[in-house]
Design brief:
elongated; 5-stranded parallel β-sheet; 3-stranded antiparallel β-sheet; about 750 residues; 35 helices; mainly alpha
């Protein structure tokens, strides 16, 4: 029987077809076809079939390809090449079950991609799943490391990967085609009709393995990669995240054995510092096995962000090295963005903040974030937030950020701070439309993630921790005006939610910034806000000092508006110190100015204070007149709730039980509508007090219990309802403060 190559050449030349023409017709290279014709390369059935059709050979050429010269197939019961899964495969039971089911399901695609960040345990999971189902693949199970992310190694080219696969399929070296097309055709021929499972580990790109993906076969290919490989259209995708806390602790204990810390709390701390990343946990466990470390000392090293990444290195494995391989494969624009993301103080950043940091439009920012997301260097969720794993954030700060030019970093921080201030201003204007805000010179933001007051408050509730850190960042980078401006705008939300610690912390930093800028009015405003924070948290004497300092600053600045606001705040502080006469005199002066200048909201606040001071002096008609006027003038839902609560308190003090009860019930409804738990709990406490005043202690206990269910603190130093409640409960309260808090917002 004639040789395939010789017969191919004879038939081609007999019909006058050039080698180039045949190469075009069968989609193989001219060089490979020349080798086939000259007996230097073996043919596979796909090529033989294509040539047969192109030359009209009626199956005769195809028949020659089945002769002994064609590479032989390994018989059933093929090679079992999967590596040992290791002694410590811990957790991931649910993922293992799901992945195994996908491999066995005949309706699923032939190729699956197991993807996740470096060190997440992708290979361990993939091998465990393949070993579990290898009984269903009688023609063999193979494992290949394509070295796509192996430190110091060169990744296998598509041709090298194809060649190695064919050698394991018992195709001898002299039978391997010299070009990738030929190799790919031969792989498909060898896999056709077989049922094998192949684990292709450490794949960098879809292009690296595209030619290996088989055609008509019952085989399965399981790919592991740090990338999501979205270009493998026909594959199914299986993401691998970090371990749940319980499984992370189990892994630490399994690997460390008897060297693991006895204390469960310490073990949990250790794996949290590892970000629950399996690679990091195994390195920590290895340190225990090697000896020389106490659990407490290792925990302290991991707790310190300056030493954490260095600690996660056992000489052969390193989290930082694993991340570096991924980082170094990035183009420059993606490296820059990863570095700049380290400047954002929150774990998850809104995409608009990312755009501001990088100085990019939405389309370009989306493109870069998507590429980093595909590489598992960041996670982009459905809300549009961009999140970095804790260890990746540290890596970005220590390895990627230094690659960004210093000037670029400074401008990026400035853009982020401006973006934060503009968006916070927009939220505050919706939530507190009648509040005074200093001019910033910034334009309104092009778009914000909220449209009404409720949306603005929801955004502030989610973002305030990051915004508080941006205040710090603004100060560190010398953006003093932006530092105090952002803190000032945040104050209304902190007041509403009674977040005293961040309120004081941000304003202490803002005070340094305002003083550094030499702006006396700004310094006075921040001092005034600090005084309010100390009043609300029950530190009245400190509040008085802040308000007095604010007055001095406003006087030096000749700022009449600021001076009258400081006098109003100081009057409230004096009210809580029991100086009702002085309070009444100062607030009467303040009220006249607010009325003349049309500052209605501040007028309402002054009227509430006058009502409370008058009630403290047992001047109930005057107190009720001011309280009712405050209710009538109140513009915002929360102000109405506060004012109605204030009037109810006056009526309670006057012994008007029915009117007090009606007032507190109305205040509870208004507070509920406004979404203000503090005023709601205050109203419920007032209802309990009223019931107790009537002698109905069971009803009082029910109201007080309902008020206690709210997660708010009603400070008896500044809240009359709380002081009365404590006195009835036997608490030691110095005197009987007849003042009701929540009235000093400006």
């Amino acid at each position: 029987m004639p040789d395939f190559g010789a017969e191919l050449k004879r038939r081609r030349t007999s019909v006058g077809m050039s080698l180039t023409g045949l190469a075009t017709a069968v989609h193989f290279t001219k060089g490979y076809l020349s080798k086939v014709e000259n007996g230097k390369a073996r043919v596979n059935r796909d090529l033989a079939k294509a040539c047969d059709l192109a030359l009209g050979a009626g199956g005769e050429l195809l028949a020659l390809a089945t002769e002994p010269g064609t590479p032989a197939r390994r018989s059933a019961g093929g090679i079992a090449g999967l590596p040992d899964g290791g002694r410590w495969f811990v957790g991931r039971e649910t993922e293992l079950d799901a992945l195994s089911a996908l491999l066995l399901d005949p309706d699923d695609a032939r190729v699956g991609v197991v993807h996740g960040m470096a060190g997440a345990g992708k290979t361990t999971l993939a091998v465990a799943a393949a070993r579990r189902v290898e009984h269903a693949f009688p023609d063999g199970s193979l494992f290949f490391d394509l070295r796509g992310h192996t430190p110091g190694a060169t990744e296998l080219s598509p041709g090298e990967a194809l060649g190695r696969l064919l050698r394991l399929l018992d195709v001898s070296a002299d039978q391997l085609p010299a070009d990738e097309d030929g190799l790919a055709n031969l792989v498909r021929d060898q896999l056709r009709g077989r049922r094998m499972i192949l684990v292709l580990d450490n794949v960098r790109s879809a292009e690296q393995i595209r030619a290996i993906v088989p055609g008509e076969t019952a085989s399965r290919i399981l790919v592991t990669s740090r990338g999501r490989l979205p270009a493998l259209d026909d594959a199914w995708h299986f993401p691998v995240d970090v371990l749940p806390l319980e499984d992370a602790v189990r892994l630490l204990r399994s690997v460390a054995g008897g060297h693991a810390p006895d204390d469960d709390g310490v073990a949990a701390e250790l794996v949290r510092h590892c970000g629950r990343l399996p690679l990091a946990i195994r390195i920590v466990a290895a340190r225990f096995v090697a000896g020389g470390w106490t659990a407490a000392r290792l925990r302290d090293r991991l707790a310190d962000e300056r030493t954490r990444l260095g600690t996660l290195d056992d000489g052969e494995r390193s989290v930082a090295t694993a991340f570096t391989v991924s980082y170094e494969s990035l183009p420059g624009d993606q490296r820059r963005l990863l570095g700049l993301l380290a400047l954002h103080p929150a774990t998850a950043a809104e995409i608009a903040a990312v755009e501001a940091l990088a100085g990019l439009g939405p389309g370009e920012a989306d493109r870069l974030v998507d590429r980093l997301h595909d590489a598992h260097l960041v996670v982009r969720d459905e809300r549009g937030y961009v999140e970095l794993h804790d260890l990746m954030r540290m890596f970005a700060a220590t390895h990627a950020l230094p690659d960004v030019e210093p000037a670029d970093r400074e401008v990026a921080v400035s853009r982020l701070v401006d973006h934060a201030l503009m968006t916070t201003l927009a939220a505050d204007e919706l939530a507190e439309p009648y509040r005074y805000r200093p001019a910033t010179g910034l334009p309104a933001p092009a778009g914000v993630p909220f449209t009404d007051a409720d949306g603005a408050l929801t955004w502030l509730a989610a973002q305030w921790p990051a915004l508080a850190e941006i205040v710090e960042s603004a100060f560190r980078h010398g953006l003093h005006d932006r530092c105090w401006q952002l803190a000032f705008v945040l104050r209304a939300f902190f007041f509403r939610e009674k977040l005293f610690e961040p309120w004081i912390r941000t304003h202490e930093r803002a005070l340094e910034a305002a003083r550094a800028s030499g702006d006396l009015s700004a310094t006075g405003m921040i001092l005034n806000n600090l005084g309010m924070a100390h009043i609300e948290s029950g530190r009245v004497d400190e509040a008085v000092r802040f308000h007095q300092q604010a007055q001095e600053c406003f006087a030096q600045a000749r700022d009449d508006r600021g001076a009258i606001d400081a006098l109003s705040s100081l009057a409230w502080a004096r009210l809580y110190r029991g100086e009702a006469e002085a309070t009444l005199a100062d607030l009467t002066t303040v009220l006249d100015v607010y009325r003349r200048t049309g500052r209605t909201r501040n007028e309402v606040i002054a009227l509430r204070g006058i009502a409370l001071a008058s009630a403290a002096l047992d001047r109930f008609p005057e107190a009720l007149s001011s309280a009712r006027e405050a209710v009538e003038l109140a513009q915002l839902p929360v102000d109405r709730a506060m004012s109605v609560n204030g009037e109810a308190w006056v009526r309670f003090r006057a012994g008007q039980w029915d009117d007090a009860e009606r007032g507190y019930r109305r205040a509870a409804e208004l507070a509920d509508d406004a979404g203000n738990e503090y005023e709601h709990a205050r109203a419920l406490t007032g209802l309990g007090n009223t019931a107790a005043g009537r002698g109905d202690r069971p009803a009082a206990a029910r109201w007080w219990a309902e008020a206690a269910a709210y997660r708010v603190t009603l400070d008896p130093t500044v809240l009359g309802e709380a002081a009365y409640r404590n006195r009835l409960a036997g608490a030691e309260v110095n005197g009987f403060p007849a003042a009701s808090g929540n009235g000093n917002a400006l």
